[in-house]
Amino acid sequence: MIVEIGHFALILALVVAFAQGTVPLIGAHRGDALWMAAARPAALTQAVLVAMAFGALMHAYVTSDFSVLNVINNSHSTKPLIYKISGVWGNHEGSMLLWVLILAVFGAAVAVFGRHLPPGLSARALSVQALIAFGFLLFILFTSNPFERVALAPADGRDLNPLLQDPGLAFHPPFLYLGYVGFSVAFSFAIAALLEGRVDAAWARWVRPWTLAAWTFLTAGIGLGSWWAYYELGWGGWWYWDPVENASFMPWLAGTALLHSAVVVEKRDTLKGWTIFLAIVAFSLSLLGTFLVRSGVLTSVHAFAVDPARGVFILVLLLVAIGGSFALFAWRGPALMPGGLFRPVSREGALLLNNLLLATATAVILLGTLYPLFIDAVGGAKVSVGPPFFDSVFVPLMVPLVAALAVGPLLPWKRGDLAGALGRLKLAFVLAAAAVVGIWFVFDRGSVLAVLGLGLAAWLAVGVVVEIAGRIHLLGIAPVASLRRLLGLPRAAWGMTLAHFGLAVLVAGVTASSAWKVEKIQTMRPGDTVEVAGYTYRFEGARDVQGPNYAATRGRFTVTRDGEPFVVLEPEKRLYPVQQMPTTEAAIRSTFLGDLYAVIGDAEGNEGGFVTRLYFNPLVPWIWAGILLMVAGGVASLSDRRHRVGAPGRRPLTTEAASAKA
Amino acid sequence: MKPKRRRLTFVLIGMGLLGAAAALVLAAFRDSIVFFYSPTEILAKALPAEQRIRVGGLVEEGSLEKVAGGTVRFKITDLAETIPVTYTGILPDLFREGQGVVAQGRFQEGVLKADEVLAKHDENYMPPEVADALKKSGQWEHMKDAMEGAGQIPKGAAK
Fold this sequence. Notes:
Number of domains of chain A: 3
Radius of gyration of chain A: 27 Å
Mean pLDDT of chain B: 75
Radius of gyration of chain B: 22 Å
Largest sheet of chain A: 6 strands, antiparallel
Strand content of chain B: 25-35%
Helix content of chain A: 55-70%
Oligomer: heterodimer
Number of helices of chain A: 21
Strand content of chain A: 5-15%
């Protein structure tokens, strides 16, 4: 019964979305206040209905209702509760339902927090939001119904793919979707602004918090996915330039650019057309990512099902949404009034450089990701574009970005003084150079590029500190007064500092982990020892253990350093009997300078020998720390009074903006 | 600077970046694109020994043997031709005889020296490249029936 209610609620949501997508739009066109007012209650109703549908599906999973096809295929009665819940989105149908749920919740949030928005803009934005929801609800109801019943319920289900039974992955999709779908708000506002023919500082003020929220969620989602790949796949790597990773990375890059260009629109009322363009691009890339990942055109753990009807449907949806919005942009974009002028060397100029580099990086990744699909589609050879391509195009674009990032925040708006800014960064330059020299002598087998990469990270980190020290007049005034200034800084300033510092930490982690990774693969019998990066691993043997829904072989390594016991590592190789699928559970011990990482493979020989894979991954914990700092920066900025999502009216904001500039 | 000159500066910087990006992409494409072949195609073509390639097919039944030091040998077949492969490292969890696999490496002296072996990610899935290789070798039809019977690929997924 509950399942049928869920299905029915979803159909009602489709009807409501259609009404919400048309009535307020027509109302806004005609200036009819009553029709426009329909948008808000409709958005709330739609969110409630989709939430009911989602709740019904979750109920079926938690109670192991095996009369529902989706539950049979992706759940099992012995599965721990958390994976019964995450199983709801661990499959195609449920994940699309989650997508629409998040879309509807964002729409409802705009309706609730956007009470003070101009009625026309709010009505149009909510309508666009509903049109997206309408397309996806159609897709779910016609090609991917999660509520399908079977006539004869089996005794038990087929279980969730064991690779997905993991705490990191349980929360990776919701965060990723909050990011993907969060860009829909910026997109809807961009389309609404194009329809209105008006973009100003107030518009940017409304859009920024939503973009920031989406960006923060997406950063966390990508981080979780990468962390999962690192410890679950057992290959010691954390990023493979896999097309599905690129699919989430491209909206992130475009979203990062949007975040920065929206600042320029807000503060200086310029770059408006470009910002609208980026808002459309960021969400289009989110849609493209959904298509690539869900349509089965790519080989990956995410391709749940290979159903051509679904792929074609998403492709059509993609063409309508992306094609339509770009056509609208081409038609209405030129009418946007250009704003204030600025010199190339200025804060605006620096943000524009950031945008150009990020946009170029997005474009080359898009090219590398789609090229094999394109060649295949035109009947050419089958090719694959792997990490060497992405490394060699992405890194050269990021180096100037990181180098300029230390300088940009030191430049004033409108016209800047490059020599003055560089003068303030003398200390950063000296420390970065010292870091380069120091690291060069510590790692005698260092590669030049990697050492320079660490120097770049040091340059950025010190540059960020110099910037905040300048804000609080450190050393210029009494320390107490400096401290008071520090505590009085707006949270948005803290947000920027944290995020930029996080990037510096991330760059250091990425560089070191790819340059100085140590990998040893061998067969070990009990009692054998292997030395990896100064740590001695002694293999003590392996034994069989029984988990809640799997059986495992658990190896045991005692690790010593300079003869002193350091840690015991127990990697596992698990077999999930329901799906007859093995998984690898790496054992990891993090230290400040890197991770000790051990994997056990198959048994070999008759004397208790096993293939083992031992790694030392330098500075990998810094990658996670950097991502956490960036997320913390996003959260800090969001908590800033001026970035509240419930922005007040147009007039008070512009006066406040004027006073903030002073 | 006049507004026009300023805009020109930005346009020139943008063009310069695009040009640099295009050069990067072209250089990287030339060095790092990896072509995919089926065993039949490899034997039909004379490939330069230094070229990195991908080979896909099924792991031949009974061909997997372990050599000392974590090195394995196995054979990839498209049911028409067979290619021997050597690989050092831990095989993917889902690597099994009789199932689809993609190996990447260099084809030298009649042996593929693989540095990467990819198996399917879950029970219901076969890498599309492998399916294509089997289609080309004309073996797809009866593979498909056998695999659908064994529940290895979803019914109706194969065309």
